[in-house]
Amino acid sequence: MIPVQIRLTKRIVEEIDKIVDSGFHCNRSELIRDAIRRHLEFHSSD
After folding, report:
1. How far apart are CA 31 and CA 26, in angstroms?
2. How far is CA 18 from CA 15, 38, 41, 44, in A?
3. CA angle at residue 19 from 23 to 13, to 5 degrees?
4. pLDDT (tens digit, 9 = 90+) per residue, 14-38?
5. Every domain of the chain and the residues it spans
6. Single pTM value for the model
7. CA–CA separation, 14 and 2 (whole Å)
């Protein structure tokens, strides 16, 4: 994988942490990869 650095607001990171803490994703990176993947799939069907 290629590392990509991003900056997020505190609120977004807190929301990400809530989801990760609930066990839905293993970590922040996996959640963000999944969100981007879903976004790309949604837009590729145009």
Report:
1. 8
2. 5, 19, 24, 29
3. 135
4. 999 999 999 999 999 999 999 999 9
5. 10-44
6. 0.84
7. 25
The CA–CA distances, whole Å, from 11 to 7, 8, 14, 18 equal 12, 8, 5, 11
What single-letter amino acid sits at 13?
V
Closest CA to 6 of 32, 26, 27: 32
In the predicted structure, residue 46 carries a pLDDT above the cut 70: no
Q: What size, in residues, is the chain?
A: 46
Burial track 11-22 (b if 16+ CB lie within 10 A, e otherwise): eeeeebeeebee
